[in-house]
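Quick illustration, no need to memorize.
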Amino acid sequence: MCAGLLLTGCKTQQPKAKVTVKPDSQRKAAPEFSLKDVDGRNVTLADYKGKVVLLNFWATWCGPCKIEIPWFVDFEQKYKDRGFAVLGVAMDDDGWKIVKPYLSESKINYRVVMGDDSVATMYGGVDSLPTTFILDKDGKIASTHVGLVSKSDYENEIIQLLETQRSAVRRGGPVAD
């Protein structure tokens, strides 16, 4: 059972102060991709422009991924009406034949696409699963997590970005680039 990956995934989890996202000036645009979802439709990151996105690279055999997925299901349900979305990138070598049943069994309520080495490379070489990127409404990477982190860390970042988005709207619209 992937003990090495479990240790690698958990190795980065350390007690830390309140999680905050990178300041806007330090965020870089998330690399664009086009990947197929379970229904064979193309999904691009641009489809999510204007939303805060939790972009999660995972696999069905990954222990820490199995811990996080129920959290992500909860976040999708709780925040989808506030301009938030979860997008899963499955990295299973066996493809949809293993992932599709897992989606059903796990009652995953967010979109999942099938990843590959090229998209992993675009995101800095995803060497450990889970690897998760939190993207702001402009498609910029606000935070990166390699390995298992706490549900509250994710939720704090999501709320912080959603509140930033709402503040910009109250001030009269999105801030110009």
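The longest strand covers residues 52-58.
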